[in-house]
């Protein structure tokens, strides 16, 4: 799992490939959650919960990162959305 060290979210965002400009993310949903592509739903849920604990506003977290982590979880935790996402990613890789 990718968890920001010492709540240094600005440094962590840059190190993880987040751009400063338009908020575009250079990571896949799997990289965002820090799980392998063949991760089980339980692994995805555990990674999501860990990330969200670290990113929670009361813990000094980053709302923008939390939105991306939540979006990644919403796709990967749903079997049909995950399959569609994987097919789309595979098509892009073939180009």
TrEMBL record:
Keywords recorded for this protein, A-Z: Chaperone
Protein biosynthesis found in the keyword field: no
KW Lipoprotein (keyword) present: no
Gene Ontology BP terms: protein refolding
PROSITE patterns attached to this UniProt entry: DNAJ_2
Pfam families named among the record's database cross-references: DnaJ (PF00226)
Residues spanning the signal sequence: none
Superkingdom in the source lineage: Bacteria
Stretches assigned to the J domain: 28-89
InterPro entries linked to this entry: DnaJ_domain (IPR001623), J_dom_sf (IPR036869)
SMART domains: DnaJ (SM00271)
GO molecular function, one term: unfolded protein binding
A GO-annotated cellular component: cytoplasm
Protein name: J domain-containing protein
Organism: Brachybacterium alimentarium
């Amino acid at each position: 799992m990718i968890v920001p060290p010492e709540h240094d979210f600005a440094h962590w965002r840059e190190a993880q490939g987040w751009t400063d400009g338009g908020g575009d993310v250079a990571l896949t949903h799997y990289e965002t959650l820090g799980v392998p592509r063949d991760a089980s739903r339980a692994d995805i849920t555990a990674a999501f919960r860990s990330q969200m604990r670290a990113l929670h506003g009361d813990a000094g977290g980053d709302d923008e990162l939390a939105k991306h982590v939540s979006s990644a979880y919403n796709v990967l935790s749903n079997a049909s959305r995950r399959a569609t996402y994987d097919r789309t990613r595979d098509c892009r890789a073939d180009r």
